[in-house]
Fold this sequence. Notes:
Strand content: 5-15%
Strand order of the largest sheet: 8-9-7-10
Number of strands: 16
Number of helices: 18
Largest sheet: 4 strands, antiparallel
Distance between the termini: 40 Å
Shape: globular
Helix content: 40-55%
Amino acid sequence: MITLHGRKTSSSTILLLLYVVTILLVVSSSAQQFSTERSLSLEDFQSVLRSSLDNELDKITDERIATALETASIHAKSKTLMRRRAYIQNRDEDVIKSTALSDRSSAHVYTSEDIWDDIIEHSWRLADTIKRGEGSSLTRAIYTDGETLPSPFLVCGEGQLDFNDIVASFNKLEDDVIHVSSSHKTLCLVLSANSVKFREVIDSFAGRLVGVPLPDVSKIHSGTIDEVLSKGWSVPFMHESERKKSNATELINHWERMIIVDFTPEVGGMKEESELLEVVNIITNDIQDMAEVGWYRKMDKEEKQKYSLDERTIDIPSLSDVFSLTAITTAESDNQRIRFWREVFKKGMESKHVCSTMFSTLFVRARGGYYSFELVLNPTDGPGSQEYESSASNPNCVASLIAALAVHPYVLSVKANFPIYHGWNVAQLIDSRK
């Protein structure tokens, strides 16, 4: 990992901020040039993939629905609130439903589709700028030579298109692609490519092929965040001395909590376990570097004077800068779910402790075929945690870890495990008794 040093500086920080702003401005215009006619709408995307994207949009918009309904009842004649009619199942009357994320300082109300557009634009910016730097860390900079890292994309085309023709157009082998769905109308697949190559191929099909970068939140399995934050799933905190004194009944809750991660098809399928472990180390080092940069950027001006920024971190983005739901909104965004994610990073991987105990005690276990792996947060034969805040017992560490894994270009999907005993979910049983 790259570390920050305890001596004063200010010029590095200013240079870093100016550089990042330049990147975002230039790449934003580049992403917008990719016509929406060659992209996927939110409705089309959701018809192909079900994921945490649906959960997050619901949580973001639910707060605005309640606010919109309250405002509408008090100010029935107000023209400033944009509304749209929606029929709610099992109700006899229409209700006003505004699916929106809005800044109260603005008169504009953002719909779920607006949020989707912002997420996709952000995903394009990442695909256009992400690269492995000279120091082997993930970096963001402006590239025009196609040297960016391959990112996962969802590609859909007319049902009459030949699967092998699409794969060959991307210079891929069949094993490098996941066939998501197909019918007489549409054919969808997931593959990795750098953004320049992707645009070239999409353009060559003259409107018969569309696609989008796979958003980070769509890589997280539906319900995963709620699961790891539940009382039944959270990692019990127990010192090693306490664990030795515990009886079998007390230890039943100490089943191994695992985060299961799938590689993109291009990365997965290693021949040896040592190759898989090497890639996992790269991923964990990348996200820890981004977490440490995020911690530094959250310091106030006075506190920053105690540290100097390692020159190798100049292009490394923070986790908050690359995770879509914290990157597409301002710090003043008046929405509970956005604030939730900011707090997750602030109290998790981007805190001063950077969840160091969690990373030092977890265990990596390869899965069959080496297309995926498990991060065991509390291995039964591993050491007990000596400190709560930086351990996997801190839910913010686990939630921010899942988000961090989802932003990585080598990762296709992330989910949590649940042990099943006698057909019942143990974690749900525990929750129901509290």
